[in-house]
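Example 471.
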Amino acid sequence: MIIDYNQKIPNNVNLNGDRRLQRALERWQPEYLNWWNKLGPETSKEHEVYLRTAISVEKDGWAHFDYVKMPEYRWGIFLTPSDPTRTIDFGIHKGQPAWQVVPGEYRSELRRLIVTQGDTEPASVEQQRYLGKNCPSLYDLRNLFQVNVEEGRHLWAMVYLLQAYFGRDGREEADAMLERHSGDADKPRILGAFNEKTPDWLSFFMFTYFTDRDGKFQLGSLAESGFDPLSRSCRFMLTEEAHHMFVGESGVGRIVQRTCDLMNEHNNDDVRKNGGIDLPTLQKYLNFHFSISTDLFGQELSTNAATYYNTGIKGRLSETKIDDDHLLHDSSYPILELSGDKIVNVEVPALNAVNERLRDDYIADCDLGVRRWNKIIEEAGIDYCLKLPHRAFNRRIGQFSEIQTDPAGKIITQTDWDKSHAEWLPTQEDREYVQSLMQPVTEPGKIAGWISPPKGRINRQPFEFEFVLFN
Ligand code: BYC
Ligand code: FE
Ligand code: FE
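Predicted structure in complex with fe (iii) ion:
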């Protein structure tokens, strides 16, 4: 199905056939654009950016690349094609046809999940809004804007569901998406990590590696939902998420590469003296972004998650590939639990551990990229190893938020934490140093001194390509 861009709101949901919904969305559209102009990427209004736009929702060939003036980007509503035979794969409604409308009894839970998902999308755009001013290269600037417009579209995806399926309170929730703001003292974003700052490009790459990866896992679970429109929205969003994580993984990898090159070139590890980011600082940023993203999976034992699963509204990642009864009424799952002053392994009812299971999958996935970064270090002949901290480290949600641990997960006293956390998490001084490196490089083919050029290409265009035109 080819998307028609001549419509006011491009879509593949036959918006023309539902005047009421069309009017509601057309009322929301200027509010959205207003928000984008106020809190979206700064100084980007006149830029023409070499962006990818969806032209079809089919598996292959949906991407079209061209220069786009940023505020003229065509946000729209795209769902993967429907499968009329789809059934619910888990929970008490297992085997029944997927729902095409919201079941009344699950309305508030579904709305809450959609609102929480939707809220993260504009939050990340707000967090990243100043980065355009100090990009390390045009290639990176283009990637930033690509991520930003797609997160904007992800908001559209959730707002569509709210307005199409939740009537008046859905419309109110859609408005509230533009009223909460990242870091706002009175009206913050819903989830913790989305109120943190993303002030520099190292933070941006760590964010897209670790926090967008939460997106992959949450969207993957929501893609299993018995509520078919939510499932189809998330499936299409997932196709875009892969690029966000690529930006993160390759971005951090390129910094690691540059750091190693500087160490070898100058034959010392005083990387800062040579304008790079030293490996211990990278480790601290990794510790920070991993730990706040780990919080995004909620409590280890969650009755919310059990209800979502049992009622068929939020599944597990790749639900159908898991070999069990997909009911979880009688099975158990091993989790780490705080027991007195120890962290111990216990078996708990699987239904209550759905969040923790997803966190396990997430941590394993995070580790794959860390291994690839370590490979770069190893190939440079340097003796250093980046590591994911223990899941109990620096937590604010869940049982481990009650204690302090070192990055290896050893429980320590508050006094020891106060003494040592500057070795584990970025300090003010680290942040100021990284910030001092953030000088814009906007000449085609040029790159900042703290990061290596990319190996890959965007749509076969070389690094020297003029990815952004400044007007
Ligand atoms: N911060 O029973 P629990 C993305 C609250 S990222 C603040 O475990 P549940 C993206 C929780 O709300 C993907 N509060 O909760 C990435 C609950 O509150 P109540 C985002 C938190 O519901 C980058 C209480 O603690 N999508 O797309 O099972 C760029 C008890 O917790 C937090 C989703 O999150 C927190 N971190 O699990 C752009 C999917 N964690 O009931 C985009 C939708 C928990 O006591 N959301 N709480 O008032 C969900 O599935 C669930 O809401 C959560 C929480 C998994 C987040
Ligand atoms: Fe997103
Ligand atoms: Fe994303």
